[in-house]
Amino acid sequence: MCVELLPELITADPWGYPIIAPGPVPGHLLPLARRAVAACPTLALLLNQDK
Amino acid sequence: MSTARAIRAAGPARRVPPPNGLPRLIPPDAPLPLADHIARYGPVPLRATDLITEVERAGLTGRGGASFPAGRKMRTVAEAGRRSGPLRGLGGTVVVANGAESEPASGKDRLLLARAPHLVLDGIALAAEAVGATRGYLSLDERQDELALQLAAAIDERERAGQNRVPVQILGVPARYVASQETAVISQLNGGAAKPTFVPPRPFEKGAHGRPTLVQNVETLAHVALIARFGAGWFRDLGPAPDPAGPPGPGTGPAAGSALITVSGAVNRPGVYEIALGMPVGELVRWAGGPSERPQAFLAGGYFGGWLPYDQALGVAVSDPALRAVGAALGSGVLVLLPESACGLAETAWIAGFLATQGAGQCGPCVNGLPALASMLEQLAFGRPDREALGWAQRLVTLVARRGACHLPDGTAAFVASALDTFADEIRRHAAAGPCSRVRRRPVLPAPGYAWGQRR
Amino acid sequence: MSGFATTLLASPAAAGRVAPGAIVITSTTPLWYLTRATGLVALVLLTLNMACGLLTSVRYQRPAWPRFVTIGLHRNVALLALAFTGLHIVTTLADSFVPIHVQDVFIPFISAYRPLWLGLGAIAFDLMLALAVTSLLRTRMSYWSWRLVHWGAYLCWPVAVLHGLGTGTDTSVRWVLGLTVACVALVAALTGWRLAYGWPSHAAARLAGALALVLALIAGSAWLTAGPLRPGWALRAGTPSHLVSGSSKSGGTR
Fold it and tell me: What subunits touch chain C, counting only 3 or more CB pairs under 8 A?
């Protein structure tokens, strides 16, 4: 489902699991990323903030 | 609550001469009873030096597979322990000596614990003092009953002689490939399953019982025990001298000290050898009696390592940077020589199938991807592979890498990727003429409890 | 203020004995109608909510209906259902006709009015609160704790339905009964889909669930025909006798 919500950064593997594009989340996608993380049914996504 | 104790010096303090050359860890007259051990090496030298700095200067890297700098790890745990000071929870930090050795082709940890237990236990005591630990654990394959009894006796003997800095408890770890991973051991210590964990915090922040935890391979701790007595300079006095000329490129950085390597496969004298890191592979093979039949390739670094064609590997130094530069790794010091009478493709399919049964079942990409990869490899080895099969295998390799909570999928991916590269000619031959006759021989690589095609 | 539609009989009601055609006195104030109306709407919304939840669990998806639509609906309908349940409760409390007080809303089985059936409503409401709070805090709690509480939905919904059938004074009204049956049919069908999805993993649990579903439907229908649909239910359900009338003409329903 995160693939639906954030197709710019997430694609699906043959079994439906998310493949996340490497690199930091661009600023304009940050609210959408937060929404995708909150929407994951199994809370499998994590938003990490590195200083 | 466990508390740290002072170590009783056994006899007057005196300078003990350092071991000259090799072997260092396992002398010919091993195992030494405690009294002889103290006579040869001196008692545990607590507070004799700033141990962490000495270990850092020595350049000791972890011998459990990741080759992570041991000094840096100890410093991180010590600092984390200081930060979560006496007001924030009681109980100090924790030291775990990891001797579970779930790599099937490795036997060095078992041997070290059987022949030089007191060096390892010294290392636990020293590390405990350096990081402020109040309790210690020694993890062991749960099937090793006899060894566990011997170690328990050794710990008790040291207790009576006042040589334990912290109480040490033996932990039996299930015989699964991922169960000896750092976070898996800690998960088990905390009462959970012996499976790697993903969510932060990391062990050095919050590990066993919520305390910052230092997890080190038993061989690493044995080296620590010697470095504490004889210093960083002595430790480094075995490896090749660093190149003073240019900046160290990959594979040219100085490898430090000695390491235990398990040599097996088609050699005349398979076994565990202690070598100076940086020794060429060819020399090690000579030490092991040379090839017992026509050699084909090496597997270096265990099942998370990589394949190397025989001729190209002979000149490569046995050290993590050098091996990584050619697509393999040092891992936990495993070197297997594959003879020409075996099929590299079949061996790879065999181990990929084994690894697919070793997952924790926690992460979709691994649960789905590894069995699919194993099936593809079996197809390549035993069927008449078309371009699609090879393409699928390559795609699966990239699909599983770095998408799990532990390194099982990554390690498997690297292993398979190097096989697809090293055995590319073999793949072409299979594609043209079907499976070779060598696929039917018994596999050289050990895979305990696994049968062909098994998937769970 | 209240407007009673009818008057009490003299001695037989006071003595507790009521003639077979006894009916409940109902108030005709707006509050009473609101209570029944909001209760029905809450039931429908709760049913739709269960439907969204079940569709989520079977990963329902179409090109024009991505999964996040189901999840989004699930959250919004849940909040609506909670709102209407809140209204339903508030109007009941505000209506001084029936002896229902604030504590009866949260603590089951202590009310003076149909204690068992009202108590079921309290249970359903408590569960709804637990579901709502844990879901709002989902990212801050352990996944399995959240999941465990969320399974309470399978208890909450049937309890709410029973509450409606047992407490409601409109149960035997044809369209109300029909609506309730439709809701049950929808949830039963989707639950059946949920039980079948992913077969044969956890086969034992699936079969147990299917058995429970079938038994619940049978038991529920049996109870319905022998209970609320028979005359005299009001008194058997625990309506205080002073609210039950033997007269055949009143502004309420049977």
Answer: A
- B214 and B271 fall within a common domain: no
Same structural domain, B102 and B124? yes
CB C160 within 8 A of CB C43: yes
What is the extent of the structural domain holding B24?
3-236
Q: How confident is the model at residue B11 (pLDDT cuts 50, 70, 90)?
A: very low
Q: Where residue B118 sits, what CATH number does that domain have? A: 3.40.50.11540
- The answer on pLDDT for B244 being more than 60 is no
Residues B121 and B25 in one domain: yes
Contact B113, B147 (CB under 8 A): yes
Q: What whole-number distance in Å separates Cα of residue C251 and Cα of residue C254?
A: 10
For chain C, which residues score pLDDT lower than 70? 1-28, 245-254
Identify whether residues B185 and B310 lie together within a single domain.
no
Give the whole-angstrom CA distance, residue B262 versus residue B269: 11
B11-26 mean pLDDT: 71
Judge whether B370 and B345 are in contact, CB under 8 Å.
no
Distance set, CA B174 to CA B143, B194, B287 (Å): 8, 7, 34
Q: Is residue B251 over pLDDT 70?
A: no
pLDDT class of B330 with cuts at 50, 70, 90: very high
CB of C247 within 8 A of CB of C6?
A: yes
pLDDT for residue B5 is more than 70? no
In a domain, B227, yes or no: yes
Residue B322, in any domain of the structure: yes
Q: What's the pTM? A: 0.76
The answer to whether A12 faces chain B, any CB pair under 8 Å, is no
Chain A CA closest to residue B198: A44
Pairing of strands B213-217, B93-99: parallel
ipTM of the complex: 0.79
Question: How many domains would you assign to chain B?
Answer: 3
Amino acid identity of residue C228, one-letter, is P
A12 close to C (CB below 8 A) = no
C139 touches chain A (CB under 8 A): yes
